[in-house]
Amino acid sequence: MSWWKEFADTVQVDAPIARMTWFRIGGCARFLASPRDAAELARFVVRAREEDVPYRVLGAGANVLVSDDGFDGAVIRLEAPAFRRVDRKGRVLQVGGGVDLMPLAKRSSQEGLSGLECMAGIPATVGGAVKMNAGGRLGEFGDVVRTVDILTPDGQRQLWKRERIGFGYRRSLVGDNIVLGATLELVEDDPVRTTKAFASCFDDKMQSQPIADRSAGCIFKNPPGQSAGALIDQAGLKGVSCGSARVSARHANFIVTGEDASASDVLRLIDLIRERVERRFGTVLELEVDVWRPQGVRNAA
Ligand code: EPU
Question: Is 223 in the pocket of ligand 1 (CB under 6 A)?
Fold first, then answer.
């Protein structure tokens, strides 16, 4: 019997995942798992490891580029209600790893809880936001995290305090562990002020970023003390395209794609940008987006 059959009612085989990503491109996942709760997820992860099947969690799909040949492993979605709970006790929120970040940020701002306003306009789930320390100029997700409920690759649950998570610029020490949920500590404030702050952050992004287009947000991390967008812009790359992938004219650190774009269009454009920026400024741009290839994941630095 195939190992995955014990999870047959929550696992699909050779499932298309392009529509679950913001780019809406790329091939199939060998397995697509949507476990009902943490116990089932733990069993699945342990079995996958025993079978040497790599796995990745797909959150909002906003920071992932799936290759045209798909991902030869298991893609896990934390979309069951068990992973999407939000419990509030005063200014402390207990949130599941599969909770959508933007509605969470909007609602807490409306309720006069401050700390997540700067997440306006960032598509992510709580798990992705912890792992990537999502954020921008006005703040990062890690700023409000008190603890994280972790599932280790060998199926153990652990509670990590924020110091252990090692939040840095768009990174953390989550690694191969799965974020089951997090405890967030916010600040009680005037709801009018927090609602306005959320709206103003969102407007700011609408003005400066191609939010309505298909993209994966910023494609590169900012090099220390520099702006990737400004470097790409100064290299004269706005509007440059490979196939149906184009450097946004609004913000040069965004690659926007047309209906018929392929992952290889985006990858060729990434290579072209890195090569031109390095040649012009001597700066090597590091990808912010995860590229999921058939044999595992490469965050091509
Ligand atoms: N700039 C240009 N040309 C461009 C884009 C930007 O000259 O095409 C200049 C801007 O004028 C500004 C500087 O570069 O002087 C920085 O640009 P911006 O203020 O837009 O911020 P950013 O550093 O490019 C970061 C995050 C964004 C986040 C914004 C706002 C990274 C890689 N990007 O962008 O996050 O939304 O701040 O807080 O850290 C993401 O991570 O996916 C993302 C979009």
Answer: no
Could you give the angle at which helices 191-208 and 101-110 cross, rounded to 10 degrees?
A: 140
Residue 300 has pLDDT above 50, yes or no: no
Asked if 189 and 217 count as a contact pair (C-beta separation under 8 A), the reply is no
CA-to-CA separations, 282 to 66, 142, 223, 231, 299, in angstroms, rounded:
29, 31, 11, 11, 21
Task: Identify whether 218 is a catalytic site residue.
Answer: yes
Report the predicted TM-score, pTM, of the whole model to 2 decimal places: 0.94
Q: Is 170 a catalytic residue?
A: yes
| Residues across the chain | 301
Query: 275 an active-site residue?
Result: no
Residue whose pair of structure tokens reads 């965004």 in the numeric block: 254
Instruction: State how far the Cα of 42 lies from the Cα of 40, in Å rounded to an integer.
Output: 5
Per-residue pLDDT tens over the stretch 76-105: 999 999 999 999 999 999 999 999 999 999
HSE (side-chain half, CA atoms, 13 Å) at 182: 29
Does the beta carbon of 19 lie inside 6 Å of ligand 1? no
Smallest Cα–Cα separation from 236: which of 226, 249, 222? 249
